[in-house]
Specification:
This protein is an all-alpha fold. The protein has a domain at 30-101. The protein contains 3 helices and no strands. The chain has helices spanning 8-19, 23-48, 71-101. Helix 2 packs antiparallel against helix 3 (71-101). The protein is elongated. The two termini are 35 Å apart.
């Protein structure tokens, strides 16, 4: 059965729906990316060990209260980084949709 041709308005609506970013998906993606990156970086430094473990990474405790380069700190850092990444992803998706499509 042949498909009917779309009108110009219908084609435009389909194109807008396809090109629109899902801000929640971007938030989850950014959150997981940042969270896992900080988690893995912390765990690698903990396993590596040494006298001054993660001197530079431990400076994050200024911005992330309670974060330390340790096993519990890796999990706390994951949570902090996930929340920050989620917020950034939502902002990126929302701003893109606003700029590309205006206020709908």
């Amino acid at each position: 059965m042949p498909q009917p041709e779309l009108t110009a308005d219908e084609a435009k609506a389909v194109k807008r729906a396809i090109l629109r970013l899902n801000a929640q998906a971007w938030g989850m993606s950014f959150g997981m990316l940042l969270g896992l990156t900080l988690f893995i970086a912390t765990i690698v430094l903990v396993i590596k060990g040494g006298i001054d473990v993660g001197a530079h990474l431990s400076l994050l405790s200024v911005y992330l209260p309670g974060y330390r380069v340790s096993w519990p700190g890796a999990f706390l850092g994951f949570i902090y980084a996930f929340v920050i990444g989620y917020a950034l992803g939502r902002i990126v998706g929302s701003v893109y949709n606003w700029v590309a499509f205006g206020r709908d």
